[in-house]
């Protein structure tokens, strides 16, 4: 993103708010801190934010109950809940109420930055007319099934196009081999072959040749990350 992303932090604990703000600045973002539920909801309705980081146990209410109000007020920000309520049931509740991600306290600063970076990458994706996914100079036309990087057309096989589309819809997130087998090959078991690695490797070389930078990265032991800006997560 060329513009500095603004990130709203709704957190009543000063030390935690400062730690989140430091992570935001590390990523080149502009943090805005609100200390209670009502001020957070109001801020989200008055300004455009790329990401909102919400605590749950706030003066005035539960942060996850603010999500619906923020959406109703027109906020399109991606929302990361950061809370000491970190049991599985708490996380499920937060995600079901509209959070895009959920991180338990106490958190590792590196993990917080990784979560924020992933959300910022998702935020950078532009969807036009339900047809085009765009990340800067990388454009995927869904109906025409074409990929352009800058002015260059990148020729893809049907399987490679399904791969790039799935990666794009999960930009910034680790995508596992099993996820690719299920969503691209429609296999719900591991055939114990290197079919995924072969196709991803071929796609990665095409993208890097056209873009002049890495676009798909390997997370050793985990899977792959689609990072159109070339920065590894």
Could you explain how this protein is built, in words?
The protein is of the alpha/beta class and 233 residues long. It has two domains: 6-123, 3-Layer(aba) Sandwich (Rossmann fold); 127-226, Orthogonal Bundle (Arc Repressor Mutant, subunit A), CATH 1.10.10.10. The chain contains eight helices and 15 strands. The protein has helices at residues 14-26, 37-46, 63-72, 88-96, 109-123, 158-169, 177-183, 195-211; strands at 6-10, 30-34, 51-54, 57-58, 61-62, 78-83, 101-104, 126-128, 132-135, 138-141, 146-149, 152-153, 174-175, 216-219, 223-226. Strands 2-1-3-6-7 form a five-stranded parallel sheet, sandwiched between helices. Strands 8-9-10-11-12 form a five-stranded antiparallel sheet, covered by helices on one side. A three-stranded antiparallel sheet has the order 13-15-14. A hairpin with a 3-residue loop joins strand 14 (216-219) and strand 15 (223-226). The radius of gyration is 19 Å and the shape is globular. It starts with 5 loop residues before the first strand and ends in a 7-residue tail after the last strand. The mean pLDDT is 90.
């Amino acid at each position: 993103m060329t513009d500095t992303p603004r990130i709203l932090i709704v957190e009543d604990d000063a030390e935690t708010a400062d730690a989140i703000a430091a992570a935001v600045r590390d990523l080149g973002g502009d943090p805005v801190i609100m200390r209670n539920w009502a001020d957070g909801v109001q801020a989200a309705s008055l300004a455009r934010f790329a990401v909102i980081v919400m605590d749950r146990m706030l003066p005035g209410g539960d942060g996850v109950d603010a999500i619906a109000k923020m959406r109703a007020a027109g906020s399109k920000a991606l929302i990361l809940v950061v809370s000491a309520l970190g049991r599985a049931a708490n996380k499920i509740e937060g995600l079901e109420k509209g959070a895009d991600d959920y991180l338990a306290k106490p958190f590792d600063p590196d993990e917080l930055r990784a979560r924020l970076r992933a959300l910022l990458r998702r935020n950078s994706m532009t969807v036009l007319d339900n047809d085009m996914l765009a990340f800067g100079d990388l454009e995927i036309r869904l109906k025409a099934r074409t990929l352009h990087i800058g002015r260059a057309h990148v020729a893809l096989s049907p399987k490679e196009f399904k791969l790039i589309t799935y990666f794009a819809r999960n930009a910034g997130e680790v995508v596992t081999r099993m996820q690719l087998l299920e969503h691209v090959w429609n296999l719900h078991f591991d055939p114990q072959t290197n079919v995924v690695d072969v196709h991803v490797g071929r796609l990665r070389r095409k993208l890097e040749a056209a873009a002049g930078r890495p676009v798909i990265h390997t997370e050793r032991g985990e899977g792959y990350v689609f990072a159109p800006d070339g920065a590894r997560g």
